[in-house]
Amino acid sequence: MKVKTGIGQDSHRFDFDNKEKDLVLGGVIIPDSPPLKGNSDADVILHAVTNAVSGITGINILGKIADDLCLKQGISDSSVFLKEALKHLNDYSITHVSISVECLKPKLSPHIDKIKKSISDILSLTTDDIGLTATTGEGLTEFGRGNGIQVFSVVTAISD
């Protein structure tokens, strides 16, 4: 058996002036929160997971491929980017995902179960295979001061 681990990171600023867009985290709409700036839905959690999968496959999805999907084809759903990354796993299967979110707002604890379920559905895992934690970082960064959200993700995959 071979094991690979990928780490992904992403961050976005809030778009406080945008009243038309929703805040989407892990494929879940978070009500009563400003959206994140970005060409897509700016789902910073799915972007970090996508980057972690890219760390395993060596194929960068966020960049030219996602830009083509988003800007040329009008696809703004970040789950499409993650699903594109999954196509490049070949004989590897994801076994576990760990996600760490840094933000002052929104409070994530009421949404953690829904986010884990959404991610587990996309990755064909159980919610027990998804770890999701959140911190304010004690206000030491722009994210902890409420100006955006930063996410780190680690993905583990195995192959026989």
Characterize the structure shown.
This protein is α+β, with helices and mostly antiparallel strands and 160 residues long. The protein has one domain: 60s Ribosomal Protein L30, Chain: A (2-Layer Sandwich). Helix content is 28%, strand content 29%. The protein contains four helices and six strands; from the N terminus they run βββαααβαββ. The strands form two sheets. It has a four-stranded mixed sheet. A two-stranded antiparallel sheet has the order 2-3. β2 and β3 form a beta hairpin. The N and C termini lie close together (4 Å). The model has no long low-confidence stretch (mean pLDDT 95).
Which of globular, elongated, flat, extended, rod-shaped describes the shape? globular
Any idea how many domains?
1
| CATH superfamily heading | 2-C-methyl-D-erythritol 2,4-cyclodiphosphate synthase
From the alpha carbons, calculate the radius of gyration and give it in angstroms. 15 Å
Quaternary structure classification? single chain
Q: What class do helices, strands and sheet pairing give?
A: alpha+beta
Which fold name is given in CATH as the topology?
A: 60s Ribosomal Protein L30, Chain: A
How many β strands by DSSP?
A: 6
Mean pLDDT: 95
| Top-tier CATH class | Alpha Beta
By DSSP (H or I, 4+ residues per run), the number of helices equals 4
Q: What pattern of helices and strands is seen along the backbone? A: EEEHHHEHEE
Largest sheet: 4 strands, mixed
Strand content: 25-35%
Helix content: 25-40%
State the strand order across the main sheet.
Answer: 1-6-4-5
CATH architecture: 2-Layer Sandwich
Distance between the amino and carboxyl termini: 4 Å
pLDDT < 50 runs, ≥5 residues: none
